[in-house]
Please model this.
Amino acid sequence: MMDDSMIDVLKKYGQEHLLRFFNEMNMRQKEKILSQLREVNWQDLDVLVHSYVLNMPETIIPPDIRPSPYFPSEPDSDDRKEFYRVALKRGTELLKKGKVAALTVAGGQGTRLGFDGPKGTFPTTPVKNKTLFQYFAEKLIRTGKKYDCPIHWFIMTSKTNDSQTREFFQKNNFFGMQASFVHFFAQGTMPAIGMDGKVLMETKESLCLSPNGHGGTLLALKLSGSLAQMRKLGIDHISYFQVDNPLVSVADPLFIGLHFVEKSEMSGRMLAKTGPFEKLGNFCLVNGKLNIIEYSDMPKNLAEMREADGRLRFISGSPAIHMISVDFVERLTEGGKLNMPWHRAEKKVPCIDEKGETVKPEKPNAVKLETFIFDALPLAAKSMILEAKREDEFSPVKNPDGVDSLVSCRAMMVDKDVRRLEKAGAKIPRKDNGEPDCLVELSPLVCLDDEDTAAYVASGKFKAPERGAKAYYD
Model:
């Protein structure tokens, strides 16, 4: 079953070593390696090898970098209040008409958290220990009921966790969502490439493959048929967020409305950075176009620059929360290719050598190529940024402890729910230092936002928690 055409292709691009062990394999192994080889666009990969591996691309920081404008989280004038009112109305109308879908990037594993499984299956909430997937599902269910139109949820998995993720949803009856409104699609992969330009092999019958970056979300939408499905369902706008951030508003009508009214093709939420070197990409204007410059690439003098009032001049950090128009994704993936730049990262990649023996390198031996979703921003005809309050919208679960950990995330989830309850007139015990003296968790099924929480407290169902208690409200 040797594929002569594949041999010719691999010889043309100097990758014939990938079939070195072919004659030793059984039928299943041969099918596996040939399937992987057919999925690679060898012509395009050869261009990338010469551009990003054999030649080190230079990171060029443009000379004309300016702070990006943004809409504040709260209107700061009567005119803006009216503008926000109109935008909120438009966003509400789009939700009621089913024009908005949610998209969660969920290809990662919980390895950094010491958890064996897809990150979305990680138990997170402070009282009920709900998984990230369940928490988002409940937010989407309530959003659908609130706007009298169920929301379609697209979940991007990876080849590593796709089957586990699907099984998890089926086992949990989709957390109350209609199964027909939950759509899974897998992220694409890229081979790891040795410093000599040769694709590395993980085993004799398998390439070293890794996800192609969160920018690959857009191409995966296209190639999986999900984009065509969105078209068929009448969906025009995508609410994009990452699976490790439970605080995010899954479909914020103001953000949706501003994106629509501004005729933006891709919009972002921004956070006021806590310091010049916080590990968030920087929203900037470059030659009049919105860009994100990685925190590691931002020149030190610009990162530290301050306004007269002491605020950082480049204050806008990106938490990877976006609105993206379906038309824009169609344009970026025309012809089944992703028309975006690639990024090079040198990594230590375990592989096999020419004898088929496993090698565990002690220093970087390979280049992994990725695309980043934010590189789509300067390609948009128009873009827009809305400020987000960090305490309401961003607390990722990335690390086992410390910053951006389960501990910090749970504390912020409790703080957010407590503030909502207090805003609605509820009495919550607090410690002398001002922290809540209890663990509180509001079910998104009944308290999605301030309006829901006020109605819940006014209904008489709310009973104030005791000091030190764990209290769950549904």
About this structure: Residues 123 and 131 are 4 Å apart (CA to CA).
